[in-house]
Sequence to fold (189 residues):
Amino acid sequence: MSTNVKIAFLCGSLRDGSINRQLESALMMRAEEHGATAERVDLGEYEMPLYHGDLELPETTKALVKHLATFDGVVVVSPEYNGSLPPLLKNVIDWTSTFDRAHFFGPVWGIASCTPGPMSGIMCMRQIQYILTRLGAEVIPVQVGCGNAGSAFSEHGALVAQPSSDLADNLFNAIIRRTREKAALADSQ
Ligand SMILES: Cc1cc2nc3c(=O)[nH]c(=O)nc-3n(C[C@H](O)[C@H](O)[C@H](O)COP(=O)(O)O)c2cc1C
Fold:
């Protein structure tokens, strides 16, 4: 079966020179090497105010949910802030969860994180996994932690550090396999 697998990439940092953007770009290249179509979904183009319950639902929230729901996979690439996820990402998750959960239920989700030091964002990835799972998302258990960002990439931007590089292959193999399994199940019904 030749299902074209479409994967969205969301980065939790909008910073110029972000190492998570660097990881996002490397993962997009890797996804395409696996035969998938990779698309960056820039959260800077979906600005949302800090959530509180009296605010009207932003149009950007609706647009983001509808767009993400069209993908087979969504990969979150996030910095770790104080052992947790950054407010940008939490705000987007909270806003979108108040509108519609189609984007959590439809695609399978992957998680990655890049840090300057050796710890590779394990604390924030665990928290993102918990939140997404609680919202009903199917989250691939393999997480692409990438520590020591300064030496993790080649001069062409490819992810070369181990075990991060193997983890990236495992993640995309799993997203593609699950997408094909879901398509086969839908065809058989
Ligand atoms: C508020 C704040 C908290 C941080 N907390 C952590 C942390 O808990 N663990 C960690 O590895 N790095 C932490 N860092 C360092 C970030 O990993 C580093 O700034 C990284 O470059 C941010 O990602 P970005 O380059 O994609 O923006 C923190 C940075 C900030 C600004």
